[in-house]
Amino acid sequence: MKRLMKLTVLSLIAIGFAAGCNEKEKTEQTAAAPKVAEAPSTVVVPDQVKGKWKAVQIQVADKNAHLKKVYTLKIGSDFHLPGSDLTLNVETFFPHFVMEGTTLTSQSNDLVNPAAQLVIREKGKEIYKGWLFSLYPTTHAFQHPQYGFTLVDYLPAS
Predict the structure, then answer these.
(1) Which of 11, 30, 94, 139 pairs with 50 at a CA distance of 20 to 30 A?
(2) Is the Signal keyword given for this protein (predicted)?
(3) CA dist 48 → 19, 105, 106 (Å)
């Protein structure tokens, strides 16, 4: 009886070890598997939006100093963030952001889902290129150790 119990315990240990090896192999296979490239998105500024917006306002939160300040960034122009090595550039503003397949565009010139495409460079090197959404500030939010960025307002061209 003792021998049977011992054999059962050893069998369970062996099964557990084998299962653990399989999990390790699966993890290694997953890590080694080629990544599927996402289809690049195309940004299309419709005529009804072109030239209608001159700037956006972005709130910058300095996490270290516990301060928040709003800056006005002209669309298409570089803005050096004071006291930092960061340069911000709003490449595109869409008042009614929509995604149609791989195309990013604005469905209208009405402020339905405002979004700004922001490029952030640190010491000249691009560290972020993505979208800020005023209605959904935490969606795809850029994670920087010191600064947080939020789209808060938009200024029409005239």
Answers:
(1) 139
(2) yes
(3) 60, 11, 9
Would you state the pLDDT for residue 38?
Answer: 55
Q: Residue 118: name the closest of 141, 147, 84, 135 by CA.
A: 141
* 26 sits in which H/E element: helix 2-32
| 140-152: pLDDT as tens digits | 788 899 999 999 9
Burial of residue 56 (CB within 10 Å: 0-12, 13-18, 19+) is: buried
Three-class DSSP category at 81:
coil
Both structure tokens of 47 = 């005529």
Distance in Å from the first CA to the final CA of the chain: 92
Q: State the amino acid at position 46 in one-letter form.
A: P
CA distance 60 to 55: 16
Residue 28 DSSP SS3? helix
State pTM to two decimals. 0.73
Q: In whole angstroms, what is the distance from residue 151 CA to residue 130 CA?
A: 12
Are 76 and 62 in contact, with CB atoms under 8 Å apart?
no
